[in-house]
Structure formats: structure tokens, C-alpha cells
Amino acid sequence: MTSSAAEFDRWYADRIESPVADELVRRVLGLPPGLQSTSLLGGAGLDEVVEALGLRAGQVLLDLACGRGGYGLEIARRSGSRVVGLDFSMVAVEHARRRAQALGLADRADFRVGELGSTGLSTASVDAVLIVDSLQFAESKPAALRECRRVLLPGGRLVVTCWEAVDAGDERLAPRLRQVDLRTQLPRAGFVNVEVADKPAWRPAEQALWQESLTFDAGDDRAMRSMQEEAHRVLATFDGLRRVLATAFAPHSAHTPPL
Ligand SMILES: C[S@@+](CC[C@H](N)C(=O)[O-])C[C@H]1O[C@@H](n2cnc3c(N)ncnc32)[C@H](O)[C@@H]1O
């Protein structure tokens, strides 16, 4: 799986060339038409995320590691909120900007290049932060979570979808996945009212997507070939991961742990 910005740029360039991959993801995950996802959050999960974010019209959502902006734009459309999308892949960010234009949401969307651990946004400037299936890529998970807390307004919400290792000592799994431990890391980053829910109901669609990707003749479609390589890796250790949805709040009061 890719990890540097340059590698993600190439990965997105391939993906943008492959309508087959996007169509497969949308169909198997049950996503709304036109939503461009490069993760495993399905339609039912998205509904839960929208509810957990609790956004009102005019509020600001930061979609962190937003990829092509699919989820952030859909949430802005549903809630009437504004979206700031941030990703370290310039290719993804440029695509997200074009997508916002095409959807008539450009006046409520601002896509920027930035890092999970250093967004460049002002302190206490957003109402909610969403990280869909990307926290594992942060070089330092604690630093990325502290950055989320810094940019959130007092009382603002963080919603994270991710995976955690069933056994943190399972060496079949990539270290970056074994480092995710939201029940411990969110309170340490200064968040309060932390809830980390297991989401076993999300897993069958994930498994079906990887399995179905392997039934395609990928030919010279590089996005499908990459998906198939990932499918082999993910399916070999599928039971080693738990799916989680975390919700946490930036504290209201000044009596909070220092960042
Ligand atoms: C699995 S994709 C998910 C994208 C999007 N959230 C979605 O659900 O469609 C992971 C994303 O994380 C981004 N990413 C990885 N490491 C990052 C970092 N250190 N800073 C910012 N973005 C990063 C990648 O460019 C990619 O868009």
C-alpha cells in the first residue's frame, strides 16, 4: 500500500483514469451515485457518520485526508455545512476542487494541500473534524489527534473511522495499523466524552469489495491491478482487524490537559 505523497499522487492519477474501480466501490459499498471514495466507508456507515458529526447549516467541517473530497462534499450537501478538505496529495486535491465545481458546491468548499499532523489551519477554527480511513497513515497518531483538537472550536466534534488490531502484537499487520488505539490516544490528545464503537456490521461489504475486485480481468487498468494487490494482502489478515467508529469532543472549559 502506498504511503508518501508522491506515491498517492500516482495512485490517484491511476484511479482517476479508471471509472471501473470507482463504480465497483460505489456499488458494493452502497454509496450515493457520484460519491468518489478511496476508502471502505459504506453508505450505512456514512449515515452514522453524518449523525455523529451533528453539523448544522453554515458550520465548518474539516475533512482531513479527504482524498478526492467525496465524503466531505456529500456531507456538505446533506447538512448545508461548509467543507475544508485537506490532503497531502496535490492530484487528489485538484480533483476535489473540480468535483466541488461540478456539484455546484464550490462556494462552500475549500480544498487544500496539507498534512495530517500540521494542517496550517487556525486554532479553534472548525466546528467538526472527520477522518475517514486515513489516521493509520499519520506518521504520529498522537500528533495528528492533537492537531485535530487544536483546530476544533471548544465543544467541537471529531469523528474517526478506522481499523484497530484485534491483537496489537499481530506481526502480520502493518505497524501503522497496530499503532492505532483510539480509546487511549483520544483522551491523551485532550478529547473528552470519547466513544469508540466496534462496527462489525460494516465488515461484510468491505470483504465483498475485496473479493469482488479479484473477479475482474484488470487488463492494463492500473487502479484495478493495485486494488487486486491490496485485496490479496487485506483478505489474508481480514480477521486480524476490528472496524471502529470513534466520536470525541474538544473540551468546553479551559481546564483541559495541555497540548
Ligand atoms: C484511504 S485514502 C482515504 C481518502 C478519503 N478520506 C476517502 O475516504 O475517500 C487515504 C488518504 O490519506 C491521504 N494521506 C495519507 N497520509 C497523509 C498525510 N500524512 N497527510 C495528509 N494526507 C495523507 C492520502 O493522500 C489519501 O487521500
Can you describe what's shown?
This protein has ten helices and seven strands. The chain has a single domain, classed as Rossmann fold (3-Layer(aba) Sandwich), CATH 3.40.50.150. Helix 1 packs across helix 10, helix 2 packs antiparallel against helix 9 (203-213) and helix 9 (203-213) crosses helix 10 (222-236). The longest helix has 15 residues, at 222-236. The mean pLDDT is 96. With 259 residues, it is α/β, with parallel strands linked by helices.
In short:
The chain is of the alpha/beta class.
Determine Rg (CA atoms, Å). Answer: 17 Å
How many β-strand stretches? 7
CATH top level assignment: Alpha Beta
User: What CATH architecture would you give?
Assistant: 3-Layer(aba) Sandwich
Shape field? globular
Helix tally equals 10
CATH topology term:
Rossmann fold
DSSP helix fraction: 40-55%
What structural class should be given to the helix and strand makeup? Answer: alpha/beta
* Strand neighbour order, sheet with most strands: 3-2-1-4-5-7-6
CATH homology-level superfamily? Vaccinia Virus protein VP39
What kind of sheet is the major sheet? 7 strands, mixed
Domain tally: 1
Q: What is the mean predicted local confidence, pLDDT?
A: 96
Bound molecule kinds, no repeats: S-adenosylmethionine
Q: Mind sketching the topology for me?
A:
Blueprint (H helix, E strand, L loop, with lengths): L4 H12 L2 H11 L13 H11 L6 E5 L5 H10 L2 E6 L2 H13 L6 E5 L12 E7 L8 H11 E14 L9 H4 L3 H7 L3 E7 L4 H11 L8 H15 L4 E9 L10
Parallel strand pairs: 1-2, 1-4, 2-3, 4-5
Antiparallel strand pairs: 5-7, 6-7
Helix pairs in contact: 1-10, 2-9, 9-10
The protein binds S-adenosylmethionine.
